[in-house]
Amino acid sequence: MENRDQIILKGMRFYGYHGVNPEERSKGQKFVVDLIVECSLIKPSESDKVEDTVNYSELFRIVKAIIEGKPHNLLESLAKNISDRILLDYDIYSVSVTIKKPEVRINESNLDYPAVTLTRYKNK
Asked: What b-and-e string marks burial along 46-77, b requiring 16 or more CB atoms within 10 Å of the CB?
């Protein structure tokens, strides 16, 4: 049976220029990203070597580059770019990306945040 361990990065905060509204593109806003990577952690748990694991510092840099990079209209598209890159670069089973927009206002409503979660699996 395959081991389905997880590496979790929760609450990563970045500033980006994503959205469909002109002010989102011109002024930008904060984005909060949670990432769950499902993989086997048997080898690194036994070797205690960073080269045997999925380095979460590298995962952070990938998410940062994409969130702070080219603007997207939709959170769905942004999450897809993150998941595609991680699936391509790492030997993992799956990746789940949640992106939150904590500062968005919808009709002056009380809303903590809108968010999108995408979960993608590697085709082995």
From this structure: eeeeeeebbeeeebeebbeebbeeeebeebee
Residues recognised as catalytic: 101
- DSSP assignment of 51-66: GGS--HHHHHHHHHHH
The pLDDT of residue 1 is above 50:
no
Count of domains in the chain? 1
Range of the domain at 92: 5-121
What confidence tens digit (pLDDT) does each residue in 25-67 have?
A: 999 999 999 999 999 999 999 999 999 999 999 999 999 999 9
Q: State both tokens at 84.
A: 């595609």
Which residue is listed with tokens 């949670």?
A: 34
CATH of the domain at 59: 3.30.1130.10
